[in-house]
From TrEMBL:
It comes from the Bacteria. GO terms for biological process: amino acid biosynthetic process; aromatic amino acid family biosynthetic process; chorismate biosynthetic process; shikimate metabolic process. This is Shikimate dehydrogenase (NADP(+)). The active site is at 71 (proton acceptor). It holds the Pfam family SDH_C. Gene3D superfamilies: Leucine Dehydrogenase, chain A, domain 1, NAD(P)-binding Rossmann-like Domain.
Length: 282
């Protein structure tokens, strides 16, 4: 007879969060390890973040993710940060250890793994990244550490982009530069173009306001948005002859890394990916 009926709970805090498909993916990862763990989406407004973090700690969550808009705002409430999270200046994963909350970042590592799985060597590549938020920071830093030659950050808030530019130039051997995002902004010549903004995330049907004439055949274009899998930006870039990748692979690999941090076990990323594909095929 089963004697312990307490569920092991993990989850994510975000606002908005209804469209996030993570529970399907994470619970598939737990199942691949034979773990009866659950993953809950919790909508938390920015002004309630502190008390929400105290709440999940009090309820003895076994792991936590943070998504838009909490990846930077949660840092002051952590007891410690991993080295990479400290450099990046954003967190997407929280570990609970001996009553302490430790901030980690798996976004950038998940992105790099996704590129590698798709046969893309980042060494010497020229990147253009749209956006300078938490996900962009993680991607830029990890790609710089992976050997990218240059990263151009395009963002509307120039101060935010300049901060990321300085971080990359001072902490890595990669060359970073900034372009202010104005309507129809031109995309400089590059090998990889990354949309690291929330534009196009369900139910938003929009596309980043850039000059699409600058997307050329053979260019690699990556949208980090997982829902829908094929955003208007993804479809447009594909029409223009680019080699395009959606955000689901990055979501899977950063999630698999989070599970490994929480449990000490390596889940099946293939089972996690299959669960997402089945979800979006419905």
């Amino acid at each position: 007879m089963k004697t312990n009926f307490r569920l092991r709970i993990t989850g994510a805090l975000g606002f908005p969060i209804d469209e996030n498909p993570s529970p399907v993916m994470f619970e598939a990862g737990f199942a691949s390890l034979g773990l009866d763990w659950r993953y809950q989406l919790i909508e938390v407004r920015p002004e309630h973040l502190k008390v929400a973090l105290q709440g999940v700690q009090a309820m003895q969550f076994d792991g936590l993710n943070l998504t838009i808009p909490h990846k930077v705002a949660a840092i002051p409430y952590m007891d410690d940060l991993s080295k990479s999270a400290s450099i990046i200046g954003a967190i997407n994963t929280v570990l609970f250890r001996d009553g302490r909350m430790i901030g980690e970042n798996t976004d950038g590592k998940g992105f790099v793994i996704s590129m590698e799985k798709n046969g893309i060597n980042l060494q010497g590549k020229r990147l253009v990244v749209l956006g300078a938020g938490g996900a962009s920071r993680a991607i830029c830093v990890e790609c710089a550490l992976a050997g990218c030659d240059s990263i151009t950050i395009i963002n509307g808030t120039i101060e935010k982009a300049k901060e990321l530019e300085t971080l990359i130039n001072e902490q890595t051997s990669c060359r970073a530069s900034v372009i202010e995002w104005t309507p129809g902004v031109r995309i400089p010549e590059c090998d990889i173009l990354i949309n690291a903004t929330p534009v196009g995330l369900y139910p938003d049907p929009g596309m980043p306001d850039i000059c699409y004439d600058d997307i050329r055949p053979g260019m690699i274009v990556q949208d980090i948005i997982p829902n829908p899998a094929h955003t208007p930006f993804y479809k447009k870039a594909k029409e223009l002859g680019a080699t395009v990748y959606d955000g689901q692979s990055m979501l899977v690999y950063q999630g698999a890394l989070a599970i490994e941090l929480w449990t000490g076990l390596t889940p099946s990323d293939e089972q996690m990916k299959d669960a997402l594909h089945r979800l979006f095929a419905e």
